[in-house]
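Quick log. Single chain, no ligands specified.
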Amino acid sequence: MSNTVQISLIGIMVASTFCQDVVHCLVVSNYCIECQLLMSYVFSISERVVEKSLILDVAMKELLEYEKFLGYLNQQVSPATLIFFILSTIRTFVAGSMLFQPGFLSLDIDAHWLIVVMLLVQWTTISIAPLVSAAFVTYASRTVGQVGHQVRVRPFGYQETPSEQLDSFMIFTASHRGSAKLCCFPISGALLGAISIASLLFFLAYANQA
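-> predicted structure:
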């Protein structure tokens, strides 16, 4: 194979890898941004209900809209994000293995430790970002039930609201169990903590073996 062809193939590989990484970051960033918007939206609804600047009927309609947006996130956006999450997790494992075991991929590859650390930080961050964003959305969704109880127990500002309407709002918010998902897997703070502990133990055990 001539040098020109070899250099061209290397250039194509680098360009395609760069394009893939750009798409990877865009998909993950889009998921995180949508999670942030949903979290802000549901917190805004809760705050306006507590501040009595939003009537309960409108609040329930906006919560139904929130559930629709959350369903779109879980059904349309999360599958692609899960694929890239698996890819970034694999790259995180490879970068960590290269750091703890320099000859992990090939004895001919001698990457500088600083480059390996930068890759490890980069792919770890990309892997963690959607999990953290989804966990915050799940937390925000589960605080809705507390707002319903708070309004029913301390109906200050809603004295003229019929008790039946307050009860309906409390039941409606108590039945709200929305959670952000990556494909079919609900993400919560407890799951994120378990994954973090398991990953830390795995890397510590792998580092000791290396």
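DSSP finds six helices and two strands in the chain.
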